[in-house]
Design goal:
This protein is an all-beta fold. It has no helices and seven strands. It is globular, with a radius of gyration of 14 Å.
Length: about 80
């Protein structure tokens, strides 16, 4: 849960759901997190990986939902 400020200088609570899963890192330094609730793994870019290590259990938030030919994208937060 985060408190965010909008363009009208008003504050609100952002109810972001967090997920836990196992991180797999590629040779190009991006990776995927396997989350039991989803059929496909969640893509995590190098910039959003927080230097996670292959095989670690990580907590992430999803910021882009799955589209036609792309998997959902997430950001590791812990």
């Amino acid at each position: 849960m985060k408190i965010i400020k909008n363009r009208k200088n008003q504050y609100r609570i952002n109810e972001t759901k967090l997920y836990e899963g196992k991180y797999r890192k590629s040779a190009q330094n991006y990776g995927f997190v396997s989350v039991g609730e989803f059929d496909k793994d969640i893509y995590v870019s190098k910039e959003d990986s927080l230097n996670a290590i292959n095989g670690d259990t990580e907590i992430l938030e999803i910021f882009q939902k799955k589209e036609k030919n792309k998997s959902a994208e997430g950001k590791i937060i812990k």
